[in-house]
Amino acid sequence: MKKLESQMRQLAEKAMYASKILATVDRKTKNRVLLTIAQQLKKNWKQIESANQKDLVFARGNQLSGAMIDRLTLNRDRIFKMADAVIEVAKLADPINRTLASWLRPNGLKISKISVPLGVILIIYESRPNVTSECASLCLKSNNAVILRGGKEAFYSNQAIAKIYRSALKRAGLPDDSVIFVQTVDRKAIDALLKLNTSINLVIPRGGESLIKRVASRSRIPVVKHDKGVCHVYVDKAADLQKALAIAFNAKCQRTGVCNAMETLLVHQAIAKKFLPPYADLLRKADCEIRGDQAVRRLIPDAKMAGEADWYAEYLDKILAIRVVKNIDEAIRHIQKYGSAHTDAVVTQDKRAAARFTSLVDSSSVMVNASTRFSDGNEFGFGAEIGISTEKIHARGPMGLEGLTSYKYIVQGNGQIRK
Predict the structure, then answer these.
(1) Class of domain 2-226+399-412
(2) Is the pLDDT assigned to residue 1 strictly greater than 80?
């Protein structure tokens, strides 16, 4: 354990040293490196896919779910999309050295509030290897060094992607330790890193509930939690039912293994009889299991009985919990009790109902007549995201470049002294 702790300390110190150099890098240099990375990701897609195949063999051997394997899988199309996302990050406005505000005091002091990088960011994540590229590109764009600790199920994929980032940095004359991939899957390495509050400035855990809780409870470093996504869609009595069918199906089935997929559907009792049978047909065609309360099971006889645990569940799979509610207030109370403050949506043509929902549902993203799947940094126009924060301090919702910055005050005087 002492040897591992020493290795992690050295790793963090390397990242901290790199961050000091990276903090001074100008916009043109950063963008040039990012464009080189995008080019190399495309050029080396076969090597990345080959590394990914090793991870898929491990995943199937350990009987991971179909949804988890989908999250893990890389192919030419996904790797090229990953590279295109890096290009989009390069195109974004530079978040560093921006004057956020400035003012002149009566004594002649000019005070400016300037955006600065955070320093070293530790990202602990599971399953999705594209997270490696997203997080590394956002950290580079915001002049932050990053330590990436991915899950064992994506080890080889993450390693191959991180290697491309480090190579591009070195070629540009920048420290390759600006992007460090932790070369061990030993969980004790995480515990060792979480103690290094003098070298690491922020921890961002992305993954299941147990990972988030473990990191939050053990870290000596500030944590931005990207908590589980128990996302809801509420279909109001004033909903356009065709829109509601499309939204609710997309929210659940477009991609089930992601944090912004719907896990619970709430339906107003006034339209349940018209809405639920055709919606159940769509779910059956998608091989999605239905779990519901008694009112749901009367309308969908093959639905399984939902228990209390189902309302809290983040399935990340082809399973959906459905509940019939008396009115919008009951839907809101359900979300307030069982939700995770991630993303929730209302489908309604009633503006007052929509306003009530958006006012009382305190989630990081609240959708009106749109799928929960739009809760995403790319869809919000951020280029990519470091994750989706369910916190209220520092960053909330899809966390892009702005969430990876802090600020400092620069005070310019002409000999003033305080009396």
Answers:
(1) alpha beta
(2) no
- The sign of the CA dihedral 333, 336, 339, 345 is positive
DSSP for 1-36, written as a single string: -HHHHHHHHHHHHHHHHHHHHHTT--HHHHHHHHHH
**In the chain, which residues fall in CATH 3.40.309.10?**
231-374
Residue 183 CB partners (closer than 8 Å, separation 6+) = 159
Rounded CA separation 48/129 (Å) = 10
Strands 319-325 and 262-268: parallel
Question: Which helix (H) or strand (E) element contains residue 63?
Answer: none
In order of 9, 10, 396, the CA distances from 182 in angstroms are 12, 12, 27
**pLDDT > 90 in the chain, percent:** 84
DSSP designation for 152: G
Domain ranges in the chain with CATH number 3.40.605.10: 2-226+399-412
Per cent of the chain over pLDDT 70 is: 100
CB atoms within 10 A of CB 102: 13
Distance CA 190, CA 356 (A): 42
Q: Cα(401)–Cα(375) distance, rounded to whole angstroms?
A: 16
β-partners of residue 179 are: 146
Look up the pTM and report it.
0.82
- Two tokens, residue 360: 């009382």
Query: For residue range 316-333, what is the model confidence (pLDDT) as tens digits?
Result: 999 999 999 999 999 999
Topology of domain 231-374, CATH: Aldehyde Dehydrogenase; Chain A, domain 2 (3.40.309)
Q: Report d(CA 10, CA 251) in Å as an integer.
A: 44
Distance in angstroms (rounded) separating the CA atoms of residues 166 and 61: 31
Pairing of strands 110-117, 289-292: unpaired
* Tokens, residue 66: 């179909």
